TrEMBL record:
Residues 2-118 form the RCK N-terminal domain. Pfam families: TrkA_C, TrkA_N. Transmembrane segments: none annotated. It comes from Bacillus salacetis. InterPro entries: NAD(P)-bd_dom_sf, RCK_C, RCK_C_sf, RCK_N, Trk_Ktr_HKT_K-transport. This is TrkA family potassium uptake protein. GO terms for molecular function: monoatomic cation transmembrane transporter activity. Residues 135-218 form the RCK C-terminal domain. It comes from the Bacteria.
Length: 218
């Protein structure tokens, strides 16, 4: 059975999320209070409705508590975002993810029980900053304030060495969890795997350890 997603608020972020989820084959309900905006997604999402998700009757009528994920994606309307999140959690929605526009907004969302708070602009800015300040880092995903996953291009320094030779975990405190080689991905590579130049190493760890590995180890 396909997972069911509801996206509330069809601005730039919410609208793009609806498109991406739909292209991945997910069952998506797109919701916005503006009929003109909703019309744009009738041929994109499985269902698109005009509704005010702050109204608890709407939440009941749409059966949102039965969805796997509900994403609240209002723009700068912090009050609407908070009230909608409260209503969704009060009605037993399993996973409520919310787009935040500020640190204050996030603090409130955390307090009222949002399962995940999303900062698309901040997170993208961090990924770009990591990418443009290093010739080796291709991508960067923040897992928490202290931990991340990075994609690092293997240089001549590590080419033709095995994971045993590098001993990344002992030396730097991080782990190579996968290697991308062309179109192939080696998940949980064996210790005897020989790294080739331009392999993409997918590494997880503490941010300080990752930074040290990128500067010294590769």
């Amino acid at each position: 059975m396909k997972k069911q997603f509801a996206v509330i608020g069809l601005g730039r972020f919410g609208g793009n999320l609806v498109r991406e989820l739909s292209e991945l084959g997910a069952d998506v309900l797109a919701i916005d209070i503006d009929e003109e905006v909703v019309e744009k997604y009738r041929d994109v999402a499985e269902h698109a409705v005009r509704a005010n998700a702050m109204d608890e009757n709407v939440i009941k009528e749409l059966g949102l508590r039965n969805f796997d994920h509900v994403i609240v994606s209002f723009g700068e309307n912090i009050e609407a975002s908070i009230l909608t999140t409260l209503q969704l959690k009060d009605h037993g929605v399993k996973e409520v993810w919310v787009k935040a526009s500020s640190t204050y907004h996030q603090k409130v969302l955390d307090k009222i029980g949002a399962d995940k708070v999303i900062h698309p602009e901040r997170d993208m800015a961090r990924r770009i900053a990591h990418h443009i300040t290093s010739e080796k880092v291709i991508d960067y995903i923040e897992l928490s304030k202290e931990h991340s996953i990075v994609e690092i291009v293997a240089s001549n320094k590590v080419a033709n060495k095995t994971l045993i030779d590098l001993d990344v975990r002992a030396r730097y405190g991080c782990n190579i969890i996968a290697i991308q080689r062309g179109d192939d991905i080696i998940v949980s590579p064996p210790a005897e795997e020989v790294i080739q130049k331009n392999d993409l190493l997918i590494v997880i760890g503490d941010n300080r350890d990752l930074n040290r590995f990128e500067k010294e180890g590769i």
